[in-house]
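Saturday, quiet lab. Running sequence design on the structure tokens for the scaffold JK sent over.
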């Protein structure tokens, strides 16, 4: 789970101001009002991926206003793509008003006035994705037509993006150094593909944007199916309705092959599990089989060729270090 900060440690009379400052830092300056400031509660989590950023908001009822004076004060020029996960709210922007409930997507723009109001007495919980306007290769005037409109899941791409964001919420706190750069690109491209679907512009996207969008969907498909031994170039091509030849051509720009990509990502998952103290009792062959390596001998040779040690040697080297770190943390050292 990504780290969460909440109002529990903030004095009651300061909570609305604290949340106002937090929203201003993560989204844009706003003015907030709350029907019962003394009872206001909120939790916030955020993960900065670089250009994009992911946030989780969970709060009791309130209203927010982004006014012309606040826009003049500071405008980060960001789109914000939100997914409501529980509760309900109303958003008004560009003379459009949309009512939102759990499962709804909505897009808004920090460069335009807007107003939101929580309409569920139990509060609102939503995920938010920051997209710098300059990073979205879609016509701005067309995107403006999507602002403050309810966006459906988009024929499946919305479900892919939803699963991606929920996965960030659950596992973002465990990311390792270097992970965020790649995650930033994948997240942005999934969001662009989602918006492009709603503009019905996939066929007229610039060639590079269309190629990137397709590769992003393929990357995601590979990642969520690594445990399937039947994950092959033919299966990937069939799922995405392209020829195997087209699929291989897409990967040529990366100077690798589809099969090599699958193998590398499976090895990365195996290496991660082999260094996980919580999985120390799991047999190496079982870890390999879980990630799609059906032949233990082939797995051992491939692992050694890639990392310079057999799986067993690698595990013995890594786990004492992990146990030592846990011991130091438990006893307050380092």
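Result came back. Writing it out in full:
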């Amino acid at each position: 789970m990504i780290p969460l900060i909440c109002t529990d440690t903030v004095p009651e009379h300061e909570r609305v101001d604290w949340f106002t400052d937090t929203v201003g830092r993560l989204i844009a300056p706003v003015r907030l009002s709350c029907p019962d400031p003394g009872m206001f509660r909120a939790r916030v989590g955020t993960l900065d991926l670089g250009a994009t950023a992911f946030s989780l908001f969970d709060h009791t009822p309130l209203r927010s206003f982004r006014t012309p004076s606040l826009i003049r004060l500071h405008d980060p020029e960001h789109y914000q793509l939100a997914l409501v996960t529980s509760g309900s709210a109303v958003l008004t922007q560009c003379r459009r008003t949309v009512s939102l409930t759990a499962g709804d997507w909505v897009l808004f723009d920090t460069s335009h006035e807007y107003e939101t109001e929580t309409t569920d007495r139990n509060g609102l919980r939503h995920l938010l994705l920051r997209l710098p306007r300059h990073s979205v290769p879609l016509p701005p005037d067309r995107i403006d037509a999507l602002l403050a409109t309810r966006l459906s899941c988009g024929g499946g791409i919305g479900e892919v993006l939803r699963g991606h964001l929920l996965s960030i919420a659950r596992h973002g706190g465990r990311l390792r150094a270097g992970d965020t750069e790649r995650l930033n690109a994948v997240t942005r491209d999934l969001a662009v593909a989602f918006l492009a679907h709603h503009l019905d512009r996939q066929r007229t996207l610039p060639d590079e944007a269309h190629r990137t969008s397709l590769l992003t969907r393929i990357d995601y498909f590979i990642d969520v199916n690594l445990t399937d031994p039947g994950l092959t170039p033919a299966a990937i091509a069939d799922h995405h309705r392209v020829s195997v030849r087209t699929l291989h051509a897409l990967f040529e720009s990366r100077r690798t092959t589809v099969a090599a990509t699958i193998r590398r990502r499976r090895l990365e998952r195996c290496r991660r599990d082999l260094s996980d103290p919580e999985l120390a009792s799991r047999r190496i062959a079982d870890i390999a089989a879980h990630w799609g390596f059906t032949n233990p001998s082939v797995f051992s040779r491939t692992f050694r060729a890639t990392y310079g040690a057999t799986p067993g040697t690698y595990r013995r080297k890594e786990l004492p270090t992990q146990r030592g770190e846990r011991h130091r943390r438990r006893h307050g050292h380092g």
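Notes for JK: The CA atoms of residues 208 and 292 lie 32 Å apart. DSSP finds twelve helices and ten strands in the chain. Ask whether to fix the surface positions before the next round.
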